[in-house]
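User: Okay, second chain of the day. Same drill as before: sequence in, structure tokens out.
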Amino acid sequence: MENIDYDLLKINLKKIVSKIFSDYIKEFGTKDIGGFALYSAEDGMSVSINTLNYLENSIKNDPENELDYKFNVEKWNKKIENKDIDDYNIVLQGYYIEMNKRRPLEQRLKHTENIYKLSVEALYELKEEDCFKNMNNEFILLVAASRTDEKLILEYNKKYNSKNAGDEYYQWAFEQNDMSKS
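Assistant: Same drill. Structure tokens below.
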């Protein structure tokens, strides 16, 4: 297997995520999108959107779990079905299968780390390039990963969002860790 071009993977991911977000702005408008998230695993990526209407109704029906509805991507209302992200995942799955067949553990772990790193960097670069500009004040931008340095994810999610949303995210993340240790 030839060397993997992680820079090219990141460039392609940025194009896909930017287009997906642009398409959803056309559908919902900037005022109705409450959140956008990129979820990364070593063998695939997924994108989710949360509308403000869905968020507000969820919180109204279950106010005790407000932060969970804001920051737990699994509770959001739309996991994006998209041919481009599906095709991208086919490439990632091919790399994952090859890595697990023919590479030593150290190389497999490095590959996984590189996939997570490129997803975090892609979303951050898109934010810096104003892909998510003109969003409402309550807009939440998140990156999540199946297995990676939790501190890295915490720090980036804090950077992606307003100070208030970043602080709420930190509070929610630490509550999740406390509950999982009980």
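The chain has a mean pLDDT of 87.

User: Thanks, on to the next one.
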